[in-house]
Design brief:
four-stranded antiparallel beta sheet, 9 helices, extended, Rev_trsase/Diguanyl_cyclase, Viral_Replic_Matur_Polypro
């Protein structure tokens, strides 16, 4: 439950510290606003929609129903939920270019369109970085993304524009990425009943992790991540199949992985 005394004490301190009060522009509220806020906090915590802060350095979470009614500066602590930007109990969510529904995860169409709108021939290093930056939004959906990116690495290392040399292989890779991004798969969402295992590996130079799902026939990889873009063929063979965008470090043997 929310600590009512903590809320009141926080407000009291802010009222006493006028300099800090102005400097950090906290929320202005009268006694009625405070009581209303406390009621809303309790209601939403009871419903499980928000939780009180667990950090020793954070205030309890709170909800602002209308930002036009309460002037909000830069909050230093706690959670602010905007009525205009927050939607509760929906069956579809759009987040950072990703569309998530009850079936799976897919890339939003406007990201795909932006990738398709790039020219097949990129004019300079900055143009290439911009293209690859947008492609990264689709990274988790593209199998063997490193295979497409490797031919661009020499261009990304060039510091002088006079040495920029765009070749036919680069144009081909751009076209291939556009084609791949036009037919991206929809990724499955792990279910509550799925038995998931994380294997990790680390040494002085690199680290890697693999999220696996236990099945009736063994284990199936969900996702790889690590400090290198090299795809570990030996790791893939150990686990039996290649996951989407399987990026892990080096030749990691299964014996080196720790179960979590």
């Amino acid at each position: 439950m929310v600590d009512r005394n903590k809320i009141e004490a926080t407000l009291k301190v802010k009222e006493q510290c006028k300099y800090e009060y102005v400097r950090y522009k906290p929320i202005q509220m009268n006694m009625e606003d405070k009581k209303d806020m406390q009621t809303i906090i309790k209601e939403h915590i009871n419903l499980g929609l928000i939780e009180p802060g667990v950090s020793a350095y954070s205030s309890p979470g709170f909800l602002v129903r209308n930002h036009g009614e309460i002037k909000r500066g830069k909050p230093r602590k706690g959670l602010v939920l905007s009525e205009k930007k927050s939607t509760i109990a929906v069956n579809k969510i759009e987040f950072l270019g990703i569309l998530i529904d009850g079936i799976g995860i897919e890339l939003q169409e406007h990201i795909v369109e932006k990738i398709r709108n790039f020219s097949d021939v990129l004019k300079d290093k900055k143009h290439l970085q911009s293209f690859l930056g947008v492609v990264n939004f689709a990274g988790i959906f593209i199998k063997d993304l490193a295979k497409y990116r490797k031919d661009f690495r020499p261009l990304l290392k060039e510091t002088e524009s006079s040495k920029w040399k765009w070749e036919e292989i680069h144009t081909q890779r751009v076209r291939e990425l556009k084609q791949v991004c036009s037919n991206l798969p929809k990724l499955a969402i792990p279910q509550d009943e799925d038995e998931l295992v994380v294997y990790t590996y680390a040494n002085d130079y690199r680290w890697a992790a693999v999220l696996m799902k236990k099945t009736t026939t063994g284990e199936e990889p969900y996702r790889y991540t690590g400090t290198s873009e090299k795809i570990s063929r030996s790791l893939t063979e150990k686990f039996g199949r290649l996951a989407v965008n399987a990026q892990v470090a080096g030749q990691v043997q299964r014996a080196d992985l720790d179960i979590v």
